[in-house]
Amino acid sequence: MLPGGTEPERPEEIDAEIRFHIEQRIERLIEEGWSGDAARAEALRRFGDVERARSAMKREDRLRRWTMRWRDLRDAVRLDARNTITQWRRAPGIFAMALLTLALGIGATTAIFSVVDAVLLRPLPFPAPDRLVAVWSDWTERGGPEREWFGWPDLVDVREEVGAFEEVGIWGGGTRTLTGRGSPVQVSGIVATEGTLSRVLRVRPELGRFFTPEEDVAGGPAAVVISHEFWQRALGGDAEVIGSSLVLDGEPHEVIGVIPPGVAPPFGPATVQDVWVTPRVDHAAVANTRGNASWRAIARLHPGVSLAAANEELHALGIAQREAWPGRYEGQIPVAHGLHDDLTRASAPGMRLVLGAVGLVLLLTSFNVGNLLLARISMRRGELAIRAALGAGRRRLARQLLTEAGVLSVAGGLAGILVGSVGIRLLVALAPQGTPRIETASLDGRVLAFAALVTLASAVLAGVVPALRASRRDPKSALAGRGGELDRGGFRLRSTLVAGQVAIAVTLLAGAGLLGRSFQQLRSVDLGFEPTDVMTFRVSLPGVAYDDADARAVFQNELADRLRALPGVTEVGAVSALPLVGFDSDVTYTIEGRPPPEPGEETAAWIRRVIPGYMEAMDLEVIAGRGITPSDARGAQPVLVINETLAEARFPGEDPIGQRIHLGSTAFEIVGIAADVRNFAIRDDWRDAVYFSNLQFPGRTLFFTVEMAPEQEPASVLPGARNVLAELDASLAVIAPAPMRDLVEGALGPDRFLAVLLGSFATLALVLAVVGLYGVVSHAVAARMREVGVRMALGADATQIRRLLLMRGFAPVAAGILGGLVVTWGATRFTQALLFETSTADPVSIGGAVALLAGAALLATLAPALRAARADPARILREE
Phi, psi at residue 88, to the nearest 5°? Predict the structure, then answer.
């Protein structure tokens, strides 16, 4: 019978109904004078297609049945939902705790997924993004990096000789100084060849056009494309912007186009580049720059061409270059990587680790809520037994309990979305600079769909076991008050869930301990310099006004002298690239008096151009000899200060002072040995490095390092520095000012981010595990009070009672700790690449996690045990 008392029609009943209608028509026709056969034929004709009528009746019957089932299900769900609200009112504490737990677990999971989705999972926002590749030079054969930049002629070879690429864009980054619109300001910029925007990325301009080939050659017109954001922010959204002029680095550029809003290049040092210009390279002038690390490339594969096929062509090109220029390309080869994977390679391991950690938190959350629901069901034994005795079947009881878990999970999911929206903003703010596309993380449709799936999973994980457990109870036993055995089974189940929570908490605490230990190791690394009182900023001299090298040297030296005269300044220097935040370049070198190395075995050193005073301002120790001094000027003997690593590797057992090193065609005399400095990253090993005088070989860009007196804030020098620079040249700007200590903290950003996130998840896991354990122990003690009263009446003292209850309560904790150590042993191997000078089996981190959890668990079990030990046995037995 259908719900509501209506039975479905069987096929034979439908046939009988059709026959009935036909017979009725035949009888009426016979009464009208038709003969029997003629009446039957006419009745069938008037009735129509019998099979069609039968099919229509079947469809109508099915629709009626499904409609009635839906109505009954809807009514049942409404009833179950009302019952759920009633249960919430009866035990608001338990449900509030479950709701808060779900909100935190679902919210954390949603926030992390939003970030991971934005950074790792979403395709790049360009047509056919899977065909975009980054082209690098692989120097691993010569002991160098896997991804190195190119010289301009190298990339011209790639563009002209590799047929797998539909288009190749050559680019470089860098800031520009905008003048003529108030005070000089720094704008972020990209230098890219014509076609990079239009044919490689396939972006369409919002206004105007993009570059033409004529604007990409030496001597061509100076043109600039601006971003939508820069157009609105700096130019007020001027509708007549196309054709207007921007003065960049002292040279007027015509604005020819505007990039659409939200379109950011998938490369470069900033999320949104303000201005794009073309390189306008003189190919003859750069013909001898093969192998220099100055330019990078992005390319688009032809349709149907694989990345492997492109790399085969690049490898062939590398071999041809080695043959054409012997000795120059030994140990290096061009290689292409998928652009998406290339952009996310640095962030991916940490993001995957965090996503795995938050998955464990969600699992722990479900265990905790399941435990709370089991506790509530245990308190409702009598009610459920009465309902079963009155005729409610197992499916009906299970549906009611699943509805309660589902409604709770939906409420937790909605609250979790609110928590997640706050968490996303917090994660974006905390994320280290340079995390790709982190700013696009939001609560969009994909993230909301994921939150819905997480909510459903939570409902299933938290509700199925309690529902099955309750629906299998024997109502006779419960009504007779003989539920002890079944209760012990319930306690065992809840204890198992607690053990699982403890195991997860141990894993997360151990992982957080390892990352925290690694972060401490990083913070204690000897950087080779002292960043505390140093303010840094960059000054770039445009080529038009400072083509002459002597003019550059005079200006930079004069700027340093005037900065030294500012109040609170104790020393001033300058360097071509600051430690930890970049590099200048490297160059192969030979040592005078020694045979030249074989092709492919050349040694290279990273070079730093410095103004006298740099080493003193940074407290960079000169171990032997002297540093760079004002006497190392143009026309004097070129001199070098080498670092300690180079001295030990190339001059073992001898004094390098006074010996000569050839950098290219120039011979330099070694005048000093400086302590090693972490020039590239805190994790990097020491590398060969040399310092030479910027007075002898002036560059266009220098980072000034201003050491302030200890009582002065480093940033206090900036107003004076801007005034000094304006007095010397009003077209120049103080670029990227930052205290050196902030740059050091920025270098620690990715490790701090991971440590903070995993530490937060571990703390949440610890709290949830302890709360779950406290609930289990409290319930177990309450259920065993009769046993406690009997034992005390028979002579057991308070100490014995406490010991008994503590041992029983701590048993799932011990099991969970053992299980957690096993899981930790397997899981922490995946964190090895994220650790610095820290073993995955570090006893301090893992032992600390176990001790912290054991101590918290001890406190959680001690409180109920103390209450039970202080109870009056006579009162307990009277109440029983």
Answer: -60, -40
Taking a C-beta distance cutoff of 8 angstroms, is the pair 769, 504 a contact?
Answer: yes
**822, HSE (Cβ side, Cα atoms, 13 Å):** 7
CA 617, CA 530: separation in Å to the nearest integer?
9
Question: What is the CB neighbour count within 10 angstroms for residue 568?
Answer: 17
Which tokens sit at 238?
């001027």
pLDDT of residue 6 exceeding 50, the answer is: no
Quickly count: other Cβ atoms within 10 Å of residue 370's Cβ: 26
Which 3 state secondary structure label does DSSP give 582? coil
Closest CA to 838 of 360, 511, 351, 507: 511
The Cα 384–Cα 180 span in angstroms is: 81
Radius of gyration of the chain from its Cα atoms, rounded to whole angstroms: 38
pLDDT at 469: 58
- Residue scoring higher pLDDT (613 or 801): 613
Q: Which of 68, 61, 82, 69 is nearest to 10 (CA)?
A: 61
For residue 605, give the 3-state DSSP assignment.
strand
**What number of CA atoms fall less than 13 Å from residue 162's CA on the CB side?**
35
Distance separating alpha carbons of residues 580 and 681, to the nearest angstrom = 5
Residue 608 backbone class (left: φ over 0; alpha: ψ -120 to 50; beta: rest): beta
Task: Give the tokens for residue 16.
Answer: 């009988």
Of residues 158, 103, 105, 117, the one with CA closest to residue 314: 158
Lowest mean pLDDT among 384-398, 439-453, 471-485: 471-485
Alpha carbon 817 to chain centroid, angstroms: 29
Maximum Cα interatomic distance, the chain, rounded to a whole number of Å: 136
Report the predicted TM-score, pTM, of the whole model to 2 decimal places: 0.76
Q: What pLDDT does residue 381 have? A: 57
Q: 486: which DSSP letter? A: H
Question: Average pLDDT in the 218-244 region?
Answer: 90
Q: Which of 156-160, 351-355, 807-811 is the least confident region?
A: 807-811
Q: Which of 186-190, 392-396, 513-517 has the lowest mean pLDDT?
A: 392-396
